[in-house]
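Pasting as-is:
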Amino acid sequence: MVQGSIDERIENVLSELKSRHPAQDEFIQAVQEVLVSLKPLFEKSEENYLDAFRVIAEPERLIKFRVQYPVMKPEGVELHTTTGYRVQFNSALGPYKGGLRFHPSVSESIVKFLGFEQIFKNALTNLPIGGGKGGCVFDPKGKSDSEVRMLCESFMKGIFRHIGPNLDVPAGDIGVGGREIGYMYGEYVRLRGQPDMGVLTGKSVDFGGSKLRPEATGYGLVYITLEALKKYTHYRYLPQGQVLQYRLQPLQGTPCLDQWIWKCCPVRRGEGSRTWRCCHLLL
C-alpha cells in the first residue's frame, strides 16, 4: 500500500534524487518540471507510475573520461585537458540516442538534464530508441581544423568502447556538425579496424549520412509551427500576400539552425498559388 499524499511522494522522489546527484541544479530542475506536469496522471491512475518515474529519472550509466587537445599559441603548443561525458540514460525502448555537445557550458548536470529530456523526445518519434547525451567543455569557434580534429579524436578514444548501432548512437548538437562527426567517425574506424556506418548520425553523405540531415531541424521547426498556426490562428485564411508576423527569439544553437529556418520560410506555399512569407518565427 502506497503511503502519503501525492505531493509528499513527489517531494520524496526529488529528495532522493538530490541526495544522489548533489549540486546538479539543471538536472534536478528538469526532473522537477516533468514531475509537476505529470502530477494529474499520478493522482488519477491506479497504476504506480510514480515509482516507474523514479526509475526513469536515474541514469543507467554515466561515462566520464579525459579529453586532451592542443591549443596553438605564439609561444608554442599548449596541451589542454577537460572532461568528456556520455550519459546513457534509458534504453527501455532501444539503443541510446542523443547528441554530443562541444560548448563551454557543458557539465555533468547539463548532460544529465539533456539526456533525461532526450528520453521523452525520442519516445515521441515512436521509434525504438532510448535517450542519451554527451559532450565536453570546448568551443570550436576560432579553433583551427587541426585543433578540432585532435579534440574529436581524443573524445572518441573515451567512448568508442561504449557505442555502436545496437548500443548507443551519438549524433551532433551544439558545436558538433558534419566536420566534427567526420573526425570522430574516422577515429572510430581507426580504433575498431573496420567501418560501421550505423555508429554515428550526422555524417556526410559519402559515409552513409542523410542528404537532408543539415536542414532537418530547421525545416521541422518551421513545419510544426505552421501546423500549430492552422489550429490557433487560422493563418491559411489570411489575405493573399499578407506576411505572417512572428517574434524571433534567440535560438540556442549554431547559425546552422537559423539559416535553414530562414531558407525554409520563404518557400512555404499555401493553397493555390499563394506564397506564405514568414519574416519572423515564434519559438
